[in-house]
Specification:
seven-stranded mixed β-sheet; binds biotin; five-stranded antiparallel β-sheet; 6 helices; alpha+beta
């Protein structure tokens, strides 16, 4: 996927206009963090065909087949405080789900906090990280990994991961999909910047089936069962347990299918 192919599809104002298109890197999030500290501008995109140390949420790794998927990070410099990171990852989830639905015609759905599923299997993972540096260039890195054209997965992922190609039976145009994700992300980010975050929550809720379902939440080894009730204005999950309702800001959620 060449930079010029991506630019052919790009309709954004700022997202992806400054682009680093790489063949291989440790992690696009890690690389973009260093660029952020050096003062890179908002909307800067780092995209790669391969990561040698891809990062997942909760200290996990993210591994995908070279040249088959979308592996990228976008730099944001929001005018909101770091504890609003939740709404940014909710917005990123909505952007990815919408882009996949529109271009690939499959019912990609959002799972809190920021997975995209198809047929209950993971199509995409999102890792948002904030950068707080002494030089006051604070920033948020939105890292997105979409399984696009990979059809073979390692045994341990085979039943829990899927891809657009697996879902549709055809290969997808990665450059077109990337451009559409950036377009939708920029749209929702503008809402965050103009304090219209309710619309993002409404849209996220339209794209999920998990609310009202039984879930199990693992927070650093402590497992709690309950019901996923709502997503709050800050992007946290309102979780109904036997002991009452609590807001969860991070954790590993399993949907219990009955
Ligand atoms: C998860 O579901 O655990 C989140 C996975 C996030 C993976 C993406 S791939 C691009 C970016 N760079 C990284 O190192 N991680 C994110």
């Amino acid at each position: 996927m060449t930079e010029s192919k991506i630019r052919e599809h790009l309709k954004t104002k700022i997202f992806g206009r400054r682009m680093y298109s790489l063949d291989s890197i440790d992690s696009t999030n890690t690389h973009l963090k260093s660029l952020a500290v050096e003062g890179a501008e908002e909307g800067t995109l780092v995209i790669t065909e391969e990561q040698t140390a891809g990062k997942g949420r909760l200290g996990r790794t993210w591994q995908t087949q070279k040249g088959m998927n979308l592996t990228f990070s976008v730099l944001l410099r929001p005018n909101i405080s770091a504890n609003h990171l939740g709404i940014i990852s909710i917005a990123a989830g909505v952007a990815v789900a919408e882009a996949i639905q529109e271009l690939c015609k499959i019912q990609a759905e959002c799972k809190w906090p920021n997975d995209i599923l198809f047929d209950d299997k993971k199509l995409c993972g999102i890792l948002c990280e904030s950068v707080i540096s002494p030089s006051k260039f604070s920033a948020v890195i939105v890292g997105i990994g979409v399984n696009v054209n990979q059809t073979m997965f390692p045994t341990e992922l085979n039943d829990i991961a899927t891809s657009i190609a697996r879902a549709t039976g055809t290969t997808a145009d990665r450059a077109a999909l990337l451009a559409k994700i950036l377009e939708r992300l920029e749209f929702w980010y503008d809402k965050i910047q103009s304090d219209q975050t309710e619309e993002i929550i409404v849209q996220w809720k339209k794209n999920t089936t998990m609310l009202g379902k039984k879930i199990s939440v693992n927070r650093q080894g402590a497992v709690l069962d309950g019901i996923a009730k709502e997503v709050d204005a800050d992007g946290s999950l309102i979780f109904q347990t036997n002991g009452g309702e609590i807001n969860i800001h991070s954790g590993d959620v399993t949907i219990i299918h009955s």
